[in-house]
Structures are given as structure tokens and as C-alpha cells.
Amino acid sequence: VIAMLALARLAEKQSNRKELFFWLERARNEAPGQIRPRIALVEAYLRDRDIQKAETIVYESREIAPDNAIVLGQWARVLMESKRFNDALPALKELIEKEPESVFARLLLAETYLNLDQLEHTARELNVALEKDPGSIGALVLMAKMELKRGRFDQAQHYAKQIQALNPDIFVGYELSGDTLFARQQYTKAKLEYTKAWSIQPSSELVIKTSTAAVRSGSPGEAIDLLMTWSERHPEDVRAWQLLGTAVQSTGNLHEAVSIYEKILELHPDNLVAVNNLAGIYAKLGDARALSLAERAYRLAPENPGVKDTYGWVLTQEGDVAQGLSLLKAAHK
Fold first, then answer.
1. Which of 13, 131, 234, 303 yields a CA-CA distance of 20 to 30 A from 23?
2. With contact defined as beta carbons under 8 Å apart, do 281 and 257 qualify?
């Protein structure tokens, strides 16, 4: 098992994910009573955001070593990744009882409180973490996010700049600064900060934030170029394709928007944004497919006001004014 774990680490250094999981799974099977292979496997699945598999393995770890602090921390992280924040609280409080000096445990608890909008508890845990480690980037990141939630933009910007000063080579300080400027509706400045973050570590989240700031600052062409380049390199990124379609549609280039939405539907036939927006464009172009697509969007999300709007207008154009008007009134309300 020790040799298998070493081979797994080597595979990870070589960015060979297939070999990594092969050796970790084999080590897990060869050692049914050991937690080391399981701890390594849970970490790997968490990094890959395969939460279901991580949860399966961490259950096994809890059966083997229910009082182990590392296992307890992994269990809490799985719950957090699954958005089960209330369930994560007892595990994290137990972890802090076992590891009262652990800054990492405090940060997990603070992040959980932040997601539950319990901001006083968030601040308390972060202050403890910063007392133990004044230069903790993780604590400063959560402080900035907490102040953003509070609407205290000066304080949020202060923490963002502090992160940049402590480590100018990581993206998160610039991203948080961009988030603060965006919240203040300073979209051009936000775009510049997001661009700095992007230059350090490109990601789906940053391409969406940068392009949204570009659109809001009156540069839809810049947003389209950025989204087009990213989407061609990452065809599986549906959110980027959606935003690209919306940006292209906003410029009035309906035929290009149609091709983008149709491409999304090839990958994800029930993508609500693509179905609804495509129905709206087909209606403008006089395409007979508008009604069937609008009906499909309405079946997917009957309470969505944007969907009611599209379906109501298509019905009205098709001559069903009574039902169309009813839906349009509901959307307007």
C-alpha cells in the first residue's frame, strides 16, 4: 500500500489523473481497514469536484476511524461542497474541539457561517483565525467576502488590497477587488481588476466576471471576443456559451446568436436559457419553431417570469391572445 500511494503521488506530479486514481483505488481495495488511501482518495475527488465519490469514500473512513480529525474535516468539506451547510456545522464544531489551534478548521467554520448568512459568527471565527495567523490569506479572503455581503465596500476593498500586498502573484486579491468595484457599479475599473486576475489564473468564473463587466461598461465586442476564445477552448463550459449567446444577441446579430444557442442545445437539450432565448429569436425571425420551443421552456420552468414573457408573446403572435395576455400579465407582475 505504501508503494501504491507513492506511485499515486508520482502520477499526480506528472498530471496523470488516470494513473493517480488507479493507484489510489487499488490501495483502497488492498487495505480495507486503513484510512490513509481513503484520505488521499477523498482529497483527489474533492480537487476534481467529484463530490459524490468523495462522499462515498469518506463514509468508509468514518466507519474505520470516526474520531480521526482529518476524516472529520473531510466529512465537513464534503457537506460544504454539497451545500449542506447546516449539516456541516456540528462536524466542524467537533473538529475545533479536537483541534482548537487549527486555523484551517476555523476557516471552514467561518465559511460555513458565511454561507448561512450568520455574519456575526463568521466575524468571530475569522478574528480568532487572524489572531493565530495574521497573514492568513484564507481568512482575509473570507473577511472581504463577508464585508461585501454587509455592503461595506471600503472594508472589502481594504482586505482585497491587503491580499494583493501579501501575495501579488495570486489571483484572488484582484478578483475580490473586482467584485467590490462591480458591486459599486464601477464596471470599467472592475474589468481591469478581473483582467489582472485572469492573467494569473484563467478560469470559467473569471471569464464570466470579466466579460460581464465589459458588457456593463459598454464594451460588448470585447466581451464577445473573450467569451468566443474561451468557449472554443472549453466547449463543455455551458455558462460561458450562454453568456456568449446573450452578448451576441444584445448586439442584434440574431443569426449568430441562433447558432450559439443551437450548439448549447446539442450538448444540453434542456438548457433553459438556450431554449427560451432561441424561442424568442425564432419569434422575431418568423420561424415556425418558436412556439414549440417556447412551450418546451414553459414546461421546464413554468414559474420563471422570463419564460412566461417569451411564451406569452409567442402565443399572442400565433393568435392565442387570451392565453398569451394572461402569461404576459403574470410575467409583468
1. 234
2. yes
